[in-house]
């Protein structure tokens, strides 16, 4: 099967709560803390003793729920919520979650973060069997598999379905009498469990969502687990024993909020360690360190502390502009860079600046920021990246497109440096990244996925395999011809 990898679906935010009289309101606050994970659409589905009500919309959470009545009508003691990450060509309201299903014998809601690597094959199989899909999202596949299962109990049906989907996924399923959370066998996408003071259980993509609602962290979900919340509390089960943790390293590099803790590692601490190690690997003379707001500020702190250089606020971010990496089109990404950052001339003028950023994906953002700093009078701009060269696409739920659109997949470090207009370019080594996070890639009880940097994917790629292998032999001069 030839499958063109144009877009790799979404890195989203999911939240679930069970056993709270104002579940939807709590879900709203939890989702607000996760807004950085998705800005294209949002929604909440509430369960009031078997009566389900949902509100979804395109845009930021506050825009979707700008009318207070939209939230007030979502009564019930359990709710699930979702924040959608934007992908090109998939901006339909039909793709905004949570999905809501009404069957003759059950009602259900479903929220999903991740990407199924066998979605194309499963969708074709299901459509051949008469399944009708209401969206282009791979999330629907799980519910179709659950409904077609011949197992006797609902949980056995869910487990069978979970064993058929492949790739990266964190699901929250809301039923009439329970809430179910499930994680893929490799734990690519994070999911944590917390509890509120009055006993309500919460599940969220990141622990930062617990702080605002006053919940305490209980545990991280483990690969292959399925956790059930019902009137008797929390019950931990599993649907497979063939597991091996491969948590996404990009969570620590870019996606997660600095105050979140993922598998025992604080994101801010990991990023600061990346900055320290980057300073050790940096080989140039400089006067000041300038971090690119906001995801690179922790790394800039570490770089400055290790190098002994002053950490200056040479770039100011407009906090009301979305993150450019998760803009759905190249045109919007370029416009976003122009709108969101400005350089402080009085800080950088005449200085040799170390510009610390978290990653270089397409090169557009880096090129523009280097230009901003030089226009503000910087004598030199040395770009230091707190992650290795991003050479390979992600097949587990991050919107990194084809290798054709990854600048480091097509150009050497020297070429990238020239394209972005920097005086030097230094990437953090893969070993440096792994040691900074503190989770090994091949530890007996779990590891870190760095496939974006070394191309060693921890699972079969299924529907993506043929296209991926073909892309390895492709070479493009897209950036030399078009980025400048």
From TrEMBL:
Binding site for Mg(2+): 295, 357-358
Enzyme Commission (EC) number: 2.4.2.14
Reaction equations catalysed: 5-phospho-beta-D-ribosylamine + L-glutamate + diphosphate = 5-phospho-alpha-D-ribose 1-diphosphate + L-glutamine + H2O
GO molecular function, one term: amidophosphoribosyltransferase activity
Glutamine amidotransferase type-2 domain mapped to chain residues: 12-232
Cofactor(s) the protein requires to work: Mg(2+)
Keywords: Glutamine amidotransferase, Glycosyltransferase, Magnesium, Metal-binding, Purine biosynthesis, Transferase
Pathway, per record: Purine metabolism; IMP biosynthesis via de novo pathway; N(1)-(5-phospho-D-ribosyl)glycinamide from 5-phospho-alpha-D-ribose 1-diphosphate: step 1/2
InterPro entries the UniProt entry points to: GATase_2_dom, Ntn_hydrolases_N, PRTase-like, PRTase_dom, PurF, PurF_N
Domain of life: Bacteria
CDD domains listed in its UniProt record: GPATase_N, PRTases_typeI
Active site: residue positions: 12
Cofactor note: Binds 1 Mg(2+) ion per subunit.
Function: Catalyzes the formation of phosphoribosylamine from phosphoribosylpyrophosphate (PRPP) and glutamine.
Family: In the C-terminal section; belongs to the purine/pyrimidine phosphoribosyltransferase family.
NCBIfam families: purF (TIGR01134)
HAMAP family reported in the protein's UniProt record: PurF (MF_01931)
PANTHER family the UniProt entry points to: AMIDOPHOSPHORIBOSYLTRANSFERASE
Protein name: Amidophosphoribosyltransferase
Organism: Streptococcus rupicaprae
Top-level taxonomy: Bacteria, Bacillati, Bacillota, Bacilli, Lactobacillales
């Amino acid at each position: 099967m030839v499958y063109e990898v144009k877009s790799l679906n979404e890195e989203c935010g999911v939240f679930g709560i069970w056993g709270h009289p104002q579940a939807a309101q709590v879900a709203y606050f939890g989702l607000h803390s996760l807004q950085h994970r998705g800005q294209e659409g949002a929604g909440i589905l509430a369960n009031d003793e078997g009566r389900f009500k949902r509100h979804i919309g395109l845009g930021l959470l506050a825009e979707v729920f700008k009318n207070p009545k939209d939230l007030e009508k979502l009564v019930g003691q359990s709710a699930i919520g979702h924040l959608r990450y934007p992908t090109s060509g998939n901006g339909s309201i039909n793709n905004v979650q949570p999905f809501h299903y009404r069957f003759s014998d059950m009602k259900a809601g479903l929220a999903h973060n991740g990407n199924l690597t066998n979605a194309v094959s499963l969708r074709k199989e299901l459509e051949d069997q008469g399944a009708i899909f209401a969206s282009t999202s791979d999330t629907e596949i799980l519910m179709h598999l659950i409904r077609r299962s011949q197992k006797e109990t609902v949980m056995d049906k869910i487990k069978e379905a979970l064993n058929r989907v492949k790739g990266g996924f964190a699901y929250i399923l809301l039923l009439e009498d329970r809430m179910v959370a499930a994680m893929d066998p490799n734990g690519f996408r994070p999911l944590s469990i917390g509890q509120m003071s009055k006993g309500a259980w919460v599940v969220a993509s990141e622990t930062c969502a617990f702080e605002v609602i006053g919940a305490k962290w209980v545990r991280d979900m483990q690969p292959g687990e399925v956790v059930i919340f019902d009137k008797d509390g929390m019950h931990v089960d599993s649907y497979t024993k063939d597991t091996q943790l491969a948590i996404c390293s990009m969570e620590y590099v870019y996606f997660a909020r600095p105050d979140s803790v993922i598998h025992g590692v604080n994101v801010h601490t990991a990023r600061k360690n990346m900055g320290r190690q980057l300073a050790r690997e940096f080989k140039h003379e400089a006067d000041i360190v300038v971090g690119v707001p906001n995801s690179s500020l922790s790394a800039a702190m570490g770089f400055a502390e290790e190098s002994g250089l002053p950490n200056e606020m040479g770039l100011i971010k407009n906090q009301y502009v979305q993150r450019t990496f998760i803009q759905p089109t190249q045109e919007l990404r370029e416009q976003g860079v122009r709108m969101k950052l400005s350089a402080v001339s009085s800080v950088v003028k005449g200085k040799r600046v170390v510009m610390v950023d978290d990653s270089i994906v397409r090169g557009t953002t880096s090129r523009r920021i280097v230009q901003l700093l030089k226009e503000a009078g910087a004598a030199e701009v040395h770009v230091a990246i707190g992650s290795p060269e991003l050479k390979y696409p992600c097949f587990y739920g991050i919107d990194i497109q084809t290798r054709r659109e990854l600048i480091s997949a097509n150009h050497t470090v020297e070429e990238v440096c020239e394209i972005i207009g920097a005086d030097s370019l230094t990437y953090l080594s893969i070993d440096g990244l792994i040691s900074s996070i503190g989770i090994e890639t091949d530890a007996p009880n779990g590891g870190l996925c760095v496939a974006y940097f070394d191309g060693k994917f921890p699972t079969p790629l299924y529907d993506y395999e043929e296209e991926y292998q073909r892309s390895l032999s492709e070479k493009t001069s897209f950036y030399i011809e078009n980025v400048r």
